[in-house]
Records
---
Amino acid sequence: MTSPSAGVQGPGAARIDFCVSWLREEGFDVVVGRSMDGAGITAGPAADRAGELTAMLCDPTIRCVIPPWGGETAIDLVDLLDWNALAAAEPTWLVGFSDLSTLLVPLTTRLGWATVHGDNLADTPFGVPDGLLHWLDVVSGTGPHRQRDSGLIADWWGLEEDARATATRWKLVGQGQWELYGAESLHVTGRLIGGCVETICNIAGTPYGDVAAFGREHAADGLIVYLEAAGDDAAAICRNLHGLRLAGWFDHARAVLVGRTRAPDHPKMTQREAVLDALGRLHLPIVFDMEIGHVPPHLPLVNGALATLTLEGNTREIRQRLD
């Protein structure tokens, strides 16, 4: 465990301690890095965080790296990673979401590594509802990994709630369902790539977010691009999605997946309208309200995996194969 973005302090520290203990009780050897300080907006100087992440990803005794949670500015270390050393190393899993999308995407697009858009460490002890898989199960085999619409909407426990630090079940708050736009049914295959809109928009069009080139490389398979909004209002999300479109992120897309969100609407635009304003002109099928973002539970997606998505009748499922 290391913190490429936000570190650990205050009430959240008890949760992270519990999660480390939980993993150890499950039989895993857990190495906790030095870059964990939560006093600032990041867990320390960018060069230190980049060095520790590079070292962990290159260490053959470490099979998976996971952050405590996301943060704000992981982008400050993207060009400080030792990309030559990473290219020479055996691939190591990197798991996380939110600000970690900034790192997951370039590891996949530049190096061809499979990376997991899934639970951060703070969420790892939570049990998964019927239909979904735990990220630990996904990284333990090549698949095919089948997941289906869970039908559930959950939330995190509040800081004031006794269950927060040691919770192993989500706080269920409602029901939801994947919703298909632009087609009556869907059966499509493509390589997965995507992440948190507010973070990936800042690497689009750079060597670290060149999804257009990744799409050309996998043109025969096509892409399934997934997106989720963390907290920006609909107008900001709309601008960011237009930016991704102009950077070629959807040039080879066969479908778009959109995560369920609690991000606010704009007075004159909803979050769904933001997506349709930017992407509707592409005439791609769009699946809204999937469990792939800042509204739990979480359906882990593997960047680079060959996925088959089916929405037909009562079937709403995605299969991922690592090859």
---
Amino acid sequence: MSVEKIISEKLNQSFSPIHLDVLNESNRHHVPPNSETHFKVVVVSEQFEAQRLIARHRAVNAVLADELANGVHALSINAYTQAEWQALDVVPKTPNCKG
């Protein structure tokens, strides 16, 4: 199973998201073709209500600890409540690779 699929399944199981995007951004970095090393996740969940941003990021990192320890080099996390998501005009873009 692809790393992207594993990330999607784990986040779905852990957060029951209203919205979930898992984007493999490895092609934007200096890695071999078809790599699965750099990801961006957009997670919208009621579980994030009353949580600070750092707590949301820690929760996502905890769920994906195995992937982060075994090949995933970078993870951009955009974690929102439903109200934040509805008020959002656009998800922040991932910066270009500087390497």
---
Amino acid sequence: MDKARLYENGDVGPVVFAHQIDDEPWWRRQKTPLICAFCMTPVVSQRTTVGRAPRGALFRLAKDQTHGEICPLNPTEVLQKIAHGSQGVAVIEGDELHLVLPGDLGQIGTPTSVTETGPAAPGDRFGVNISTVRPLLPPLINSAVVIARFLQRYDYDADVVAQFKVRRPGETRAVGWGEFCHGPGPGDQARLYARLTGGRKPGHPVAVYGRITAVEKDRRNRKVLRLADGPGFTVRIRSDHNTLLEPLKAGVFVLAVGHWKVWTPPRGRPELQMYAEEHWQLAHWTYDDASGRSGPPACPPPLSLAQRTLRQARKTAAAPKPAPRSVPSSSPKPHPSGPSTSVASPPVTLPPLPPAAPPPAVPEQPTLPPGPDTAPVVPAPPAHPPLSPRPPASPQRPADPPRRRTRRGWWPFGRRH
């Protein structure tokens, strides 16, 4: 633990910190009793150790002592309550709660009820109540809101934060809570800015948690949420749908989950920004620093059917169009202009006509000697006149050359007689 409280004569005293131990403060020299910062369990201070296992100064439990049941450093009950309402995205491993992250924003899941971490209800020692808040949140966002509000109640104490870890997609080893949620300090957001600009970019959705400092307008008169500025950059939340940002006001706390990026405008400071596309990406609530009480969490109303249709149309218009595929043409392809290399077909030779059939033979009549009563017999003509055979085709006579006019045949004053 990095802090504790003084306990003298039955009275709880001020908070002391571990970085003071090595300087031998008065409460250490006088061996003033110490108790946990969140419960009445006795603790002791320990100086920085060197050697094979160096360790910084800290507070640890006294011998045979355990944290009280209402202490947030006793994770048994509070972690079980959060895991019970997570629908499997938050699992308990020993004294830690592991939140399993998806690889893509679309894999977060369906909405569920919200685990409330506001003021403690009667019989609830931790202020972790299960209630239904409209509209519903997906299990991952629900669990992240519960953890963020629980840590906010205990001022993001390092020992309390150490109980919550996350598992990146495809990995079984858990990493710190800060690998997923960046906030509330500007240094946490600067760490995300460094990862996006030059380090190892996260392969999963990340969250930025903080207080909204101002509500601005862009050039198209759309609402823009501005969080606390980081060193050398600004933090803004934007959206193409004003209904997602309308309920959020300056002064409220927001947990924005999505794909964060760095945008450098032509003029001005770089911007760490996120574009909200769904209502469950923006969970918000109020918190009173003086009393430590917070209002119930909420999120904007879901997008209407018209808004979703418009968003899909914009995505379709912005998507790159595939190259047109070549379709074979039905028209004949033009012949190449060069000399043809095809073999010319041989000329067709018609067969000669058969010769004409000879005329039919007519039998000769016997010649009788003329008598007084007989007339001379005249032979009958044939039934068909004989056909003359077709003369052979004579070669075409070439045309005579044009007759050349001589000077003798021409006279300028008419024809010569």
